[in-house]
Design goal:
heterodimer; A: about 350 residues; mainly alpha; four-stranded antiparallel β-sheet; globular; B: about 400 residues; alpha+beta
Chain lengths: ~350, ~400
Amino acid sequence: MQMETVRFTQNDLAKYPFLKETAEHMKKLGLKIEDLTNPEMAQILNRAEERVKNAILSVSVGRKRENYVEIPSFPVAIILAIATKNSFIKKRYALAEAKQAFIDMQLENRERIVAIALDFGWNLAVNHNSEIPLEFEVNFADYLRNTAHLRDKKWKLVNRILVNGKVYLNKHDVARLLQEEVQRRIEERLEATELPNFPEKITDLAEGLLELAKERIGQEEMEGFPKVVSQSAFPPCIVALQEAVAKGHHLSHVGRFTLTSFLVSIGMPSEKVAELFKSFSDYNERLTRYQIEHIAGERGSRTRYTPPQCATLQTHGVCVNRDALCRWVRHPLAYYRLKLKRG
Amino acid sequence: MTTSSREFVYGKFSDFYGDPSTIIPPPTLLGQRELGFLLLKERIMLRHKGFANIRDLKLFLGEAVPSDVYRSCAYYENPTVEMDKKGWLGADLVFDIDADHIPTSCDKLHDEWACSKCGFSGKGVTPEACPICESQKFNTKTWPCEVCLESAKEETAKLIDMLGKDFGFSDKEVSVFFSGHRGYHVHVENEAVKTLDAMARKEIVDYVSALGLSLLGGEAKGRSARRRRSRGFSLHNFGWNRRLKLGLRDFVLKATKEDLINAGVKRNYAVILRNKELILKRCIDEGRWSSVKGVSVGTWRKLAEYVKDLESAKIDTVVTTDTHRLIRMNGTLHGKTGLKKVEFPAKHLEDFDPFEEAVAFKEGTVKVVVSDVPKFRLGGRVLGPYKRQTVEVPTAAAVLLICKGRAEVAS
């Protein structure tokens, strides 16, 4: 079923500046990083700063301007966010843009939604099966790419209408899933590894944004966990794993990995983690140390592993003794963070 | 295993892989797969191997004589380098259904376990912890019995049904295999799923095993139990709702008093037994779930919860979510049985007979001393039960008994 392709208007490009077509448009304009300090660009720069500032303050991007300011302000905001070299700000900015897109998309007609989805390479189509009262159908693999980490149970594939490889969705849900795509696309753009030499104006603005973030969000929140390990804030699954280890009980592979990566992530030194496993009958000091250091990112690929999220632990039967706090989190580390905060 | 038994098995495996008529069907894009081998004599695992074509692989198998041959579900740019540098390109979606994970009516009485700490032993399902010393390590001796394999087959049938009707995979994309031991493997090769990550695959696992199905209340939205109850009960005709509806229909139709009590209906089972036809028509077909007195929303929830377990497919969750998994290669021998992993068309699942079609060693007989084995069927012969006796059995049976630690070659 071939849909007639919808042409994006300038208004669309201003609303959805992350679209590939907007990038094409920008290329034609030929904006260069050196031009940014040019006084005529002041308006654009100003709007770009506002985008990031709003993201930091309220996870929003602020009021839209004229198209000729709005469209180029997006790539400039990206440059600003990159220039802060701060992963918290980058994440927050991507989220803010994505949330705005979600709000706007809900007001679009079906054809435009399909066109945006197509920009992300989705197999989305208008549903023509009259028995199912939902407006859209999407290939389940596309669906999974965007929902596997969403928290609410309603997104689980098992709770969806899945027929012959298609998941059926209403407009609100499609917009919500596209929000994830938008966020991911922007995060990718923010991960530029080779940084150009930014003009002074840009670095100054970036400095200011960084200061603002530190003031509003707090240093600690932005950096992660406090240095001291607090046993009393461990989630129930980790407590159960610890107890099992203490009794010398056998742990599944997933169980061992979860416990180790959790402890390493909250800042326990590898040597201390290794001591825990001493009670195992198959304990091998060299091997245990090797595995822990691997998980801690001190060896091999240098990837520092974090524990699986709650949903994964449920699948593999590691999630036990859920308590009241578990309801609010989807990751064992989030539980720890939340409980620390609550004291 | 005695030395002569080991040499006998080695000889048979060596003959098998050295025989030019042995056919080993290559997986799609063999050159992009990692291969792994467990060597029979040395008992070591060789990993990170790669072969450009099946001829080279067969030559290698003839020389190395592995007890088990594995290949990755994943496709790599460089399958032979260390894990981090392989360059993952994607992976088939694989499912492993093993009788070990399924409660069966044989109660696994053919399996034996012994505590590796204090030596206490027993038959049946291996306990969590030793009743004497609480150790959790056991030596086990399992047996691939017909009941076990039949249960695994039922789970496989449910899985295949979901893969087709719900996930929309074509017959061509879904391959079904007998694993060579106690279960079945299902492989899906499809471009859209090839690049799915572990999280997305986990959602597929949860779907087929009905984990997190929220229409049954659970802890999702309704905060209090009362509010959940008052939300009512309804099922539409798609996805898992449809499976539950059909399952409920089937269950109510065939239910006995015991079935209902097992499902948690302890008081009102008589009402259901008396009004079966009315319930099927009014409640299930017409969707007026609370229209029969004595069969409340609460009852339907209980039944649905029970039926959910009957309708879900019991798979090994870890295998499917692991995107780097090594899995037994089609056409090769299983080191614990001497049976082959064999592919067969999904539509023949019901008639497939592993004890006929997976037999690799079809000629000759061998004298063996059997310790203990239940009656079994293999390659068209019914054998056993044997207990501490010397018997002459077909080669395939001898290999099976020895590999399973139930017999030794008679001197």
